[in-house]
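Consider the following assembly input.
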Amino acid sequence: MSKKDNFEPVLELLDSEAMKRLKEQFERRAERCRNKNYNEEGIPMFLVLEDVGCDASGAARTGVISGDPMYNLMLAAMLEVFSSHLANQDRALEPKEISIMLEVLADQYFALANPPNSEPTPH
Amino acid sequence: MSKLLIPGAWETLIRSLRQGFLQGSYVRTVNFHNTALNRQDEYERQLEYCHRHFSSVDEADLSAWFETGTWHKDKPGLLPIFFEGYRNNLEVAAPLAESYGFVGWFFIPSQFPSTPVDEQAAFAEAHHIGLIDEDIDRRIAMTWDELRELDKRHVIASHTKTHSRLTLNSPDKELRREIIDSKLELERELGHEVSMFAWLYGSEIGVNPRADRYLQEAGYRYLLSNFKIQKLR
């Protein structure tokens, strides 16, 4: 993974107390998501849009580009932080854990993105 | 063994999801199964909230999103998704979705509507379709007539034939039945192309290359999985 591919510098900015609080918040949200009634509740989720076709060079197309750049960066950074929190050198992330991460992001941040050209609304 | 399968290493998946977020190449969904009458107020609050913040997405919107690379509405797009083809989706969820301007995406195991009413509970139990107390002793699945009516305002997609999961060893005969036969059956009943497919437990492209070939052979445009909507053609 190249330097520009990861958010380790972001994680390094967090001191141990800040990281501890972040992890605790994630765990609370994850537990809330795990306890939802999937048979009867509406479960918010993010789904990445991906064009699996290839361009002329053979590289996979990366799909659409849109949305609020600041919000998008926040989602990507949070995904990185959460996956770093859950994974360690001894084991791989399970797909269910990745699913929970996205559910936590959706549960927490679903409606924070503002329409283009609008004034930001307070959280 | 996990029921959720991913193609390759988890780091590769995280990288692709991160890239998707960074580019804004993502959509929001709310995933429903049963929509119980005694939770109607809860669903209404949720869809009203979604209406305030998000825009509906139909098939033309999704196609344009991929083709142009941009989202053309003021508010971000959201798909309310309803799995399994429950009659309670028609009675409770669809009217709410419509009242708040949303196109619903209904993923139907194609054998379920064709199952005789007195066999539907057993079919559900045998095929990982959850039931609720409200549906005891009554028809569980939508009929084909009801699906045709729903199809006029919403999107109907394939959720396999028998609500089947994909495994690495799924036999070709099973893959053809779940992927191709379900599409043919839905299209015969609805009278038009069915563009999207989803496995039970949401496997994506790359988990089983043989399945991927059948998806291409069947002519699906999109695969909905746990983490992505993948455009196939």
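The CA atoms of residues 37 and 66 of chain A lie 32 Å apart. Ask yourself how this observation constrains the way the partners meet.
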